[in-house]
Specification:
- The complex is a heterodimer of chains A (about 550) and B (about 300).
- Chain A is α/β, with parallel strands linked by helices and about 550 residues long.
- In chain A, about 35% of the residues lie in helices and about 25% in strands.
- Chain A has three domains: about 230 residues, Rossmann fold (3-Layer(aba) Sandwich); about 210 residues, P-loop containing nucleotide triphosphate hydrolases (Rossmann fold, 3-Layer(aba) Sandwich), CATH 3.40.50.300; about 70 residues, no CATH class.
- In chain A, strand 10 and strand 11 form a beta hairpin.
- With about 300 residues, chain B is mainly α.
- Chain B starts with a helix and ends with a helix.
- The chains are: A alpha/beta (about 550), B mainly alpha (about 300).
């Protein structure tokens, strides 16, 4: 392996001192003060994590270290050093010498972070070429070496492929390869595993841990405390641009001092929180949610099969769901869980098998009968913004759903307000449009819309995956309350095992269109029988309440 | 992949067949005797008239006439113009070169200039963008014939840099090309800049910057290719519009071209030529759009794998 030529002679101090060091960093965009007085340092071989929810300023902080905050940003700090050199006055030219060469940067979701119109090999070669890290003739060979280094099988083939031809995990590895091509001393990873399946996430975290062992410093940006716990030596918790807590990872995660950190930790759905509310107020014990006895069968799915061309997306799936209960379907991308949901909703016709809602099967119904039956089964999607007409006000969104539900015109407004109250919103949002609502409010409106025709069952397809953990906790609590009040059943689809564990009574574990295991939630999560379930559970990072260190269940 | 190409070619043939059928129908829906319609406003001897009836099979039933017509078109025989006293094919052939030359050069000019402008002005200081979009607004709003007259007055009559009429080679082509290219250039610039500005916000652009790439490098190597995809779509549409729609410019610069030919044919009721022009335009349009589909595959690898 050719070691890239080091441009500047480094003194001993530079090798051992912090790679980046900022004191009292402020970043503002016009009137918005996004980062207020953040200080930290990252040393070689150390992993510092910045944790926070959206809008906390964590990503802006990361970008500042690369001079990538944009023209509108105003950055100031009492001290801002990169490898011991004052970077506060750096111009674009100097930053470019740092980017990719001294500091590597990995963003989430390689499908959008890699240029989809270029082969991944070219993207990796780009970093090498820009910094003339290796002679031109050796670039191709070096790209293959790098792909092998990050654990991509058949690197010669993969280098020629485009991002859309690679799986999520391989794509993310290729992205990491492009960031570490010049062996930067610091690697910044902004939500590096957020879009990935849990088993793939575990692989990527392992890869990052390897880099760290080799002496690369890591700055990890994440909303997920469990992910951070696995790698971080030091954790900074940010909220509204301010670091509210800062300390060794073990201490912050096991004995959080700041109420916000405590709230974040409590909001993570974990075993001990099962059956209780997640969004606890300070000093208040977690209130349990009164369980309801199961009612009659509302969904009966029998031996469902759905093929797309030669691929079998759903293969022999059967289950039963009773009123007032929740059935969780868990699986990684491509496992067939969303196709199953669409079959249940009557949006797709199965190639074999049948689905009955309230004892009435979809097949053989006339269009009018299907519409009538559709009132009994509603759906809440991951991203409500794309399922709302952006020009509709909340009032119109709800009115439309109430109309479908046969609500008379005269009582629609009252009923709309009542629905909003049920989901914890007040009448003031009626005239607002979806874009003007926060993510949590939007999801509440989506739930209100689903409730409008008084359905027997609601299909929730990744309903909290796009939400911050504290908002996720509130929405999960809301769903639980509504179930206990109204006796509605949920078919709850998620790739997030913790969430499924928290909400479900029964669970189906799916892989490649088949149900690999099904049963009571406690049995599945404590004594999984199928090897695949054990593999999934083992891959989930968990925070041990006592030590604050990530523990993985032995498989 | 092969199947897709075959389907594409099949539908193209259908379009051409449609164009042939439409001109045949138009011929028969024109009021008056078909032979008279074909002869138009010229005066012919009874022998020629009899020849026309025999050539088109006008004394035979309609389906046979249709088959005869289709057969002739397939052999490349577009008929005779009884006004120009030559075959339609050679009449069009004589004019086509000039039109294709003008269209192609205007397109190349438009693409080069608008790409450069879009790359240079996207996400720049407010005054740069303001200046550029102001000019674009002017460019789109001024009618082409007016631009043509203006160019002619200034550069040919006053400055004498370019010939005022006809002219060979590049010097004769330049002013008409500019006149035709201005509205296309401005439209393309606006669209590409808007696209570029959206694309420059994409995460992969940030990633490219984080590798140490310069701003210009990011624009040229990453963003531009993404912005080209919708621009190509627009170009396909523009080509169809241009081929027959340059009458005014041809007239003002006294150039030869399909537009002039069509104008003369329509005013002189020379139906064989009109039908010929319709067919040739359809063929060119189809060919250009096939090329554009191939261009998509070159630009966007995601489309290559799609079944």
């Amino acid at each position: 392996m050719t070691e890239p030529i080091v441009e500047a002679a480094q003194s001993e101090d530079l090798v051992t001192g912090p790679i980046v060091e900022v004191t009292d960093l402020h970043v503002s965009f016009g009137p918005v003060h996004a980062v207020r007085g953040v200080s930290f340092a990252v040393h070689p071989g150390e992993c510092v994590a910045i944790v926070g929810e959206s809008g906390s300023g964590k990503s802006v902080t990361a970008r500042t270290l690369l001079g990538l905050t944009g023209d509108e940003a105003r950055v100031r700090a009492t001290s801002f050093r990169v490898e011991g050199v004052d970077a506060s006055g750096h111009r674009e030219r100097q930053w470019r010498a740092i980017r990719g060469r001294r500091i590597g940067f990995v963003l989430q979701d390689a499908l959008v972070s890699l240029d989809v119109l270029r082969p991944v090999g070219k993207e990796i070669a780009e970093t090498l070429r820009l910094h003339r890290a290796v002679p031109r003739a050796e670039t191709a060979g070096r790209v293959i070496e790098l792909l092998r280094e990050v654990g991509v099988p058949e690197p010669e083939l993969r280098a020629r492929q485009y991002p859309h031809e690679l799986s999520g995990g391989l794509r993310q590895r290729a992205l990491i390869a492009s960031a570490i091509a010049c062996h930067p001393r610091l690697l910044i990873a902004d939500e590096p595993t957020t879009a990935l399946d849990v088993t793939v996430q575990a692989q990527i975290l392992r890869l990052l841990a390897e880099r760290k062992r080799d002496g690369t410093a890591l700055l990890l940006i994440s909303h997920d405390l469990a992910v951070v716990a696995e790698l971080a030596d030091r954790v900074l918790v940010m909220k509204d641009g301010v670091v509210v807590e800062d300390g060794p990872a073990g201490r912050v995660l096991s004995e959080p001092e700041h109420p916000y950190t405590r709230r974040l930790l409590a909001a993570v759905p974990m075993e001990h929180a099962k059956g209780a509310r997640l969004s606890v107020l300070e000093g208040e014990p977690a209130r349990p949610i009164p369980p309801r006895p199961p009612g009659e069968v509302v969904i009966e799915a029998h031996d469902l099969v759905k093929r797309f061309r030669s691929r079998t997306a759903v293969d022999g799936v059967s289950f039963q769901l009773r009123a007032g209960r929740t059935l969780g379907i868990v699986g990684e991308s491509g496992s067939g869980k969303t196709t199953t949901a669409r079959l249940v909703l009557g949006l797709l016709a199965p190639d074999a098998g049948s689905v009955a809602i309230d004892g009435r099967p979809w097949e053989g119904l006339t269009a009018t009968e299907r519409r009538e039956l559709r009132r009994h089964i509603q759906v809440v999607y991951q991203d409500p913004l794309s399922s709302f007409d952006p020009r509709f006000s909340v009032r119109r969104i709800l009115a439309e759903a109430l109309d479908v539900g046969g609500e008379p015109r005269a009582t629609r407004r009252d009923r709309a307000v009542e629905l909003l109250e049920q989901v914890g919103l007040d009448a003031s949002v009626l005239e607002r449009r979806p874009l003007r609502l926060s993510g949590g409010q939007r999801q509440r409106v989506a739930i209100a819309r689903a409730l409008a025709p008084r359905p027997r069952v609601i299909v929730c397809d990744e309903p909290v995956s796009a939400l911050d953990v504290s908002i996720q906790a509130q929405v999960l609590d809301l769903l639980a309350d509504l179930q206990s009040e109204l006796g509605v059943a949920y078919l709850f689809i998620s790739h997030h095992l913790g969430v499924v564990h928290h909400v479900s009574d029964h669970v189906l574990v799916m892989k490649d269109g088949r149900v690999v295991e099904s049963g009571d939630v406690r049995q599945i999560f404590t004594e999984p029988r199928a090897g695949y379930t054990r593999e999934l559970l083992a891959a989930v990072p968990r925070i041990d309440a006592a030590t604050g260190v990530t523990v993985r269940k032995a498989s | 992949m092969t199947r897709r190409v075959l389907t594409r070619l099949g539908t193209s043939l259908l379009v051409l067949w449609g164009a042939v059928t439409v001109s045949f129908t138009a011929l028969h829906l024109t009021p008056g005797n078909v032979a008279d319609v074909l002869i138009g406003s010229s005066i012919v001897t009874p022998e020629v008239r009899a020849q026309i009836i025999a050539d088109y099979g006008l004394d035979r039933p309609l389906p046979v006439q249709y088959a005869t017509y289709l057969g002739r078109v397939l052999r490349g025989d577009l008929g005779q113009s009884y006004q120009l006293h030559e075959s339609v094919a050679s009449a069009i052939g004589a004019q086509l070169g000039a039109s294709v030359q003008l269209t192609a050069s205007a397109l190349v000019f438009a693409v080069v200039v608008s790409t450069t402008l879009a790359v240079l002005t996207a996400r720049r200081a407010r005054w740069i963008r303001g200046l550029s979009s102001g000019l674009e607004l002017v460019g789109v709003s001024i009618p082409t014939f007016w631009t043509a007259i203006l160019l002619l007055t200034v550069f040919s009559f006053q400055l004498g840099w370019f010939p005022a009429a006809g002219g060979d080679g590049f010097s004769g082509l330049f002013l008409p090309m500019i006149a035709v290219a201005i509205p296309i250039t401005t439209m393309l610039t606006q669209m590409m800049r808007e696209n570029l500005e959206l694309i420059l916000d994409e995460p992969f652009v940030l990633t490219a910057r984080s590798r140490g790439m310069s701003d210009l490098g990011v624009r040229l190597k990453h963003a531009l290719r993404h912005a080209l995809v919708p621009a190509i779509t627009l170009l396909g549409w523009v080509v169809g519009l241009l081929l027959g729609g340059m009458v005014a410019v041809e007239q003002i610069f006294s150039r030869q071209g399909i537009g002039q030919l069509t104008l003369a044919a329509v005013t002189g009721k020379d139906l064989p030529v009109v039908m010929g022009v319709v067919l040739i335009t359809a063929v060119l349009y189809v060919v250009v759009n096939i090329l554009i589909d191939l261009l998509y595959l070159v630009v966007d690898p995601r489309l290559r794998g799609a079944a």
